[in-house]
Amino acid sequence: MSNLAIVILNWNGRNWLQQFLPTVIKNSAGADVFVIDNASTDHSVNYLREYFPAVHIICNSQNYGFAGGYNEGLKKIKADIYCLLNSDVEVTENWLLPVLKLFERDENIAAIQPKILDYNTPTTFEYAGAAGGLIDNLGYPYCRGRVFEDTDTDHGQFNDETEIFWASGCCLFVRSSAFWEVNGFDERFFAHQEEIDLCWRLKNKGYKIWYTGFSAVYHVGGGTLNKQSSMKTYLNIRNNLTMLLKNLPLSQLLWVLPVRMILDGFAAFYFLIRQGPAHFWAVLRAHFSFYTHIPGTLKRRQNRQIGTYFQSKWLIFRHFTK
């Protein structure tokens, strides 16, 4: 086995650790298990020290969010491969072997995602990742096995191994060398879509992102922010716009951003009618924050950008013509 560190980021998730950490330890022989704690106030750290003495604990001084929390903690972990695993994920027997074999097969693969199924409805794919992430020509992310809010039933149709555009942060395997080559997560994202931005920057560097359906995990989802949260709306819109400005080729960016501004305007009024003023205001705040940070975002553009349209269409064509 390659030097693998399974790293769980925790913030007031003692109940999730109590429920799912035993299965991680049981099914991950040969890997080191770490918990990065984001300044929890629910005595998570004391609980880990008492009941899981073999787990390595890294304590952040404050809640840095998903992106910053992992960046801070991973600086203290030496491993060839990180598995960034949500605390509300149940892993399965032999879940690591297919992933490690895929890494060994192609050194240009930087990140891998397993099949992600719904813990509460195990026969269906889970929203956050499903069978691997893609992105459309307007920059909206979606997944094999999930389009918008609708997830498919798992009939084995994605029991394959294939290249994807992005891998879910719910269970993300990534080479440490590649992770740090692109400076890890963008900490300004705090949470939501930071893994898509990371994968996009890896692809800009010439790396590949892959999915394997021969490894499966079960994700509860919504453990920190549920789908009805206006904060989730704010983060998703702000971070998606930021990601596009960072990573789209200029030729695509010049027409995508204006179209997205119009669509977000429609979305704001849709949210106002369907979900109330909090979500309407979340869209406006997201745009204000995006505009404020444009200078800093432009400085983070890489020398080479991979467009979404041709990449995603090629991946879709490849999947349905196999």
Estimated helix fraction: 40-55%
Rg calculated over all Cα atoms: 19 Å
Instruction: Report the structural category.
Output: alpha/beta
How would you characterize the largest beta sheet?
Answer: 9 strands, mixed
Q: Which percent band covers the strand fraction?
A: 15-25%
Number of strands: 13
Query: What is the terminal separation in angstroms?
Result: 31 Å
Shape type:
globular
Q: Order of SSEs, N→C?
A: EHEHEHEEHEEEEEEEHHEHHHHH
Mean pLDDT: 92
- The total count of helices amounts to 11
Which residues sit in consecutive blocks of at least 5 with pLDDT less than 50? 317-322
Please provide a written account of the structure.
The chain has 322 residues and is an alpha/beta fold. Helices cover 42% and strands 20% of the residues. Strands 1, 2, 3, 4, 5, 6, 11, 12 and 13 form a nine-stranded mixed beta sheet that branches. α6 (194-204) packs parallel to α7, α7 (230-247) runs antiparallel to α8 (250-274) and α8 packs antiparallel against α9. It is globular, with a radius of gyration of 19 Å. It starts with a strand and ends with a helix.
Keywords:
globular; two-stranded antiparallel sheet; 11 helices; 322 residues
Question: Could you give the topology of this structure?
Answer:
Layout lengths: L3 E7 L3 H13 L5 E6 L6 H8 L4 E4 L5 H10 L6 E5 L3 E3 L4 H10 L3 E10 L14 E3 L5 E3 L2 E2 L2 E2 L9 E4 L6 E5 H6 L12 H11 L3 E12 L10 H18 L2 H25 L2 H16 L1 H6 L8 H13 L2
Parallel strand pairs: 1-2, 1-4, 2-3, 6-13
Antiparallel strand pairs: 4-12, 5-13, 6-12, 7-8, 9-10, 11-13
Helix pairs in contact: 6-7, 7-8, 7-9, 8-9
